[in-house]
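QA checklist item 7 of 12: single-chain prediction sanity check.
[x] sequence parsed
[x] length recorded as 310
[x] structure emitted
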Amino acid sequence: MSAVLRAPAGQALETDAPAKLNLYLHVLGRRLDGYHDLQSLVAFVDIGDTLHAAPAEGFSFAVTGPMAAALDCGESDDNLCVRAARSLAAYAGRTPDVALTLTKRLPVASGIGGGSADAAATLRLLCNFWGIALPEDELAAIGLSLGADVPACLGAVPALVGGIGERVRPVPPLPPAAVVLVNPGFGLATARVFRDWRGPGKPAAEWTPPPHAAALAMQLIQRRNDLTEAATGQEPAIAEVLDALAARPDCLLARMSGSGATCFGLFENAAVAEAAAEVMQATHPTWWVRAAGFTRNPPPVRIASAAAEA
């Protein structure tokens, strides 16, 4: 990985965990080990969760933010941030001394990589906080042991993903565009959606960098999310979300991300995306609706602000 941030002793650090979108997701087949071979183009957007690390004697983990209630897990090993911190400490042969705080803004189990993005951010953050410099492949191996989406979330840049998620090939930044993310108010268990998937799927065509948002939409229209039918079969409200997005006059593409239930609409620019988000939130007040833009670079690890430390 890149050089670690050398922060003053006793200084708290923080980083962001951006939401991940599967712009397309082809499921090629089920493997003998129970996992599925995938082909996907992932991108990251400028909204997400935040991880904060402060000096401490021993380990602690806390969750704040609007979605905190959905993660009532304390320091349980069920939480991916906790597992990431302990896995990295064990790999480095050190004690996991840190007060870790997650500000949770993304819906849980919603197909936009929330837990995986949080785990990846924890690994990036604590490598800096503890002064651990690991080769990218070793850090990716720790990430993969936590979840199939974690390796892609470590880089947090547009990438083609293959295998079960371990093959990550960054691609050039996406053209300027904007998205509206919509979750109907519930999560879906990934394993349950894959259970109802009916394949096999077909490989995606070779990806070529599109020059503008309309070309991006045209390339994505030729691809798909193979889990959409299984997800909507379990939760018909996903189809309602997709229809509502597609009905917006400036929407270039409406698609489900990951295994759902969050869907996204692709728009040419931030202004039309924000206008669409405002209308959708007003007409569906119980839905979680956010406008966002694609990011181009990995989120930096930074000195924590005084407000964050308070």
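[x] summary fact logged: The two ends are 30 Å apart (CA to CA).
[ ] second reviewer sign-off
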